[in-house]
Design a protein that fits this description.
- This protein has one helix and seven strands.
- With 145 residues, the chain is an alpha+beta fold.
- The strands form two sheets. The protein has a five-stranded antiparallel beta sheet, with no helix packed on it.
- The longest helix is centred in the first third of the chain and has 22 residues.
Length: 145
């Protein structure tokens, strides 16, 4: 009889548990959606650039007065090109090596303006004679003596 009660008690408990589980099928509680966090956008202040640096301006070339029979020394390395006319478009006559002395026939002849690194901008050429040749050499390449 003790066994029957135990069996009966176990059966009752089992039925209660099954009943409870069957009754728990109600509507599930919805999970709340998280509230979005506002995004903070930081706009940096406008960049202020300093004013552009002033570009130095070269003074106009010094024009030496014409001197009859003067000479000049070649400053260009390895040489200065002597040309038929006062322009790089004219034919080459010859090359005069650095340190050579040329005879000046005419000074400061207006011709093609050149800009070469290390030398000022100039349109002045000298008509010269050297080694039996006559032609023009760009003035900044010569040092009048």
């Amino acid at each position: 009889m003790h066994r029957q009660r135990l069996y009966l008690g176990t059966l009752v408990v089992l039925i209660l548990v099954v009943g409870l589980l069957a009754g728990c099928r109600g509507t599930p509680t919805p999970t709340p959606k998280p509230t979005p966090t506002p995004t903070i956008v930081v706009i940096p202040p406008p960049i202020t650039l300093p004013p552009p640096a002033l570009q130095p301006t070269l003074p106009p070339p010094t024009v030496a007065p014409p001197v009859t029979g003067a000479s000049a020394r070649v400053l260009a390395t390895p040489s200065a090109i002597m040309r038929v006319n006062a322009t790089t478009a004219s034919a080459r006559v010859t090359a005069v090596a650095y340190g050579q002395t040329v005879k000046l026939l005419e000074q400061n002849v207006a011709g093609q303006e050149l800009t070469i690194a290390g030398y000022p901008t100039s349109n002045l050429w000298h008509k010269v004679e050297w080694g039996g040749y006559t032609g023009y050499i760009w003035a900044p390449l010569l040092q009048v003596q």
